[in-house]
Amino acid sequence: MGRYIVQRIVQTIIVLFVVCTVVFLLLRAVGDPARLLVNPEGSKEGIEIIRKSLGLDLPLWKQYVNYIKGIVTLDFGTSFTYKKPVVDLIKVHLPSTLQLTFFSLLIAVVSGVTLGCISAIKQYSIFDNIATFLAVFTRAVPGFWLGIMLILIFSVRLNWLPPSGYGSFKKLIMPSVSLALSMAPVIARLTRSSMLEIIKSDYIRTARAKGQTERTIIMKHALRNTLIPVVTMVGLQMGHLLGGSIVIETVFAWPGIGRLLIESINVYDFPVIQTTVFMIAVFFVLINFFIDMLYLLIDPRIRLG
Amino acid sequence: MNEIQLPQKEKDAKRSSFKKFLRLLVRSRTAMIGFIILIFLLLVAIFQEQFATQDPNKQSLRARMLPPAWEENGDPAYLLGTDQLGRDILSRMVYGTRISLFVGFAGVVISTVIGTVLGLISGYYGGIVDSIIMRIVDIFLAFPFLLLAITFVVTLGPSLQNLIFVLGFTGWVSYARLVRGQTLSGKEQEYIMAARALGASNARIIFKHILPNLLAPIIILSSMEIGLYIMTESSLTFLGMGVPSTIPTWGNMLATGRNYLSNAWWLSTLPGLCIILTVLAFNFIGDWLRDALDPKSTYDV
């Protein structure tokens, strides 16, 4: 098991390194950020001064070395528009994104697993049919559209919840629900099929033969094994959640990393774009790593094998 | 004798499999609904001039922010209302259909071609080529799909062609993985060995013996991916990074509608329904195809 963990850590570090290289190369391919920053009538000298201040006059490999050096020392440069170190901007925006993704993950997992379990236990009941229909339907609903609809219903019409902003629990509800939408039906379907399979297995029949209550059988014996594929799926879906948060944050004016990225793209704030893309990718890779580790905890077969 | 009978038998086999296909289609209600929606959308996309009641870009100062015809103050000439510039919502939605479908189909075609070719090479030849291609796949998978698409759009600049290219170039990974896996298991089959023993070239084995068996899984994946691409297109356009705002698309309409939520619900609600309907149709068809084309499926039982 120790060897496996070390292997995964090395693998993760390599992927992270490649990710920063790709981000670097992609953004250099855009062309000269200095030219985009200066207005079209700007003088040649003006562009030169900006290029120097950004270190863009250096040869590409030197820029790359500086860039890697910056990442290692957590120095991501200074934002063009905010005139602040990018690290500070990330520090301000990261907690709200984490809050949003964590809360929607919670909503998605709790509702998905609960719905899936009930669907499986009461297979082909009305409840199961409704849940199936909802799962199929919500898969086709874009999260940001649901967000707009929630604003329309709960803010404009009913005036129950604030349409946007950050800071209170009330403001967190609609963004997290819209973000959770893409994930909950997937989890529900997977929990259902996984639970259906487990219920039929021998050890559950043994538990029944022992005369255990149905409740104990489901909660103590079946649920744990049901969750193994669910955990993997959660890991795979985290990327969608992080990607989705970019759009959802824009809809609800949620001051997170995603909105920071979109705003910086609109004003060509390259240090910020570079860092936010990098940060989201890093998070994605790290989450996948932790999911793998979590897998070891849940499933003893992998630990011993 | 055998040679004369063979074509007839082949024809019979083909006809019966097509009949089976139709029978499965009729039996599945959701698939029928999906196909009906899809055919309707295709008709709308092809005959958009006939379906649109107005010029989608014609602005009218007097007809600004009209609600749908059935609401108070509605105008029957603008069946689904107008936007802040007095443009007809129905006509703009009709024109958006062609672009959405086109982006979805074209993006998927690009993904399929790149993914299938790389997957075949990777799975068939293995070795160092396989390692290189799979590492590239790993890099693509290190980014969330939408983030990667955004990064590419930033690099290339937003336009319709770039958007299609970006979707195609971001999404090939799932095809490559699928095709590689199938090729790996397929190439060990006895009929492949038999073909090789008969002296068939690699190209012939790949195109004549391996690729035909891959068609079903590729078609299933594609029908699912089209819905995803259409949703991603609308998300990117909504963020201002997809189709330029001068072209009427569902994503663009949603983006404008978001600014007028408090006084014009129809601006953002209706285009969203179009997206849902389209994606739903493709998902229905995809689910059904998976059951119908997968020989291991229990659909017939």
What can you see in these coordinates?
The complex is a heterodimer of chains A (305) and B (301). By secondary structure, chain A is mainly alpha-helical. Chain A contains 14 helices and no strands. Chain A has helices spanning 2-29, 33-37, 44-54, 60-72, 86-121, 126-138, 143-157, 169-180, 184-199, 202-209, 214-251, 257-266, 270-298, 300-304. With 301 residues, chain B is mainly α. Chain B contains 11 helices and no strands. Chain B has helices at 2-27, 29-46, 48-51, 89-125, 127-141, 145-156, 160-186, 190-197, 202-238, 250-258, 265-293. Chain B is elongated and about 75 Å long. Residues 297-301 of chain B have low confidence and may be disordered. The interface between A and B is large, with 43 and 39 residues.
Mean pLDDT of chain A: 82
Mean pLDDT score of chain B: 82
In CATH terms, the superfamily of the domain at 87-269 in chain A is MetI-like
For the sheet with most strands of chain A, the description reads: none
| Fourth-tier CATH superfamily name of the domain at 54-63 and 97-292 in chain B | MetI-like
Strand content of chain A: under 5%
Overall SS class of chain A: mainly alpha
Helix amount of chain A, in percent?
Answer: over 70%
In terms of DSSP E residues, the strand content of chain B is: under 5%
Low-confidence stretches of chain A: none
Taking the sheet with the most strands of chain B, its summary is: none
How would you concisely characterize the structure shown here?
Chain A is mainly α and 305 residues long. Chain A has 14 helices and no strands.
Features:
heterodimer; A: 305 residues; mainly alpha; MetI-like fold; 14 helices; B: 301 residues; elongated
Question: What is the element layout, followed by pairings?
Answer:
The complex is a heterodimer of chains A (305) and B (301).
Chain A lengths: L1 H28 L3 H5 L6 H11 L5 H13 L13 H36 L4 H13 L4 H15 L11 H12 L3 H16 L2 H8 L4 H38 L5 H10 L3 H29 L1 H5 L1
Helix pairs in contact in A: 1-13, 5-6, 5-8, 5-9, 5-11, 6-9, 7-8, 7-11, 8-11, 9-11, 11-12, 11-13, 12-13
Chain B lengths: L1 H26 L1 H18 L1 H4 L37 H37 L1 H15 L3 H12 L3 H27 L3 H8 L4 H37 L11 H9 L6 H29 L8
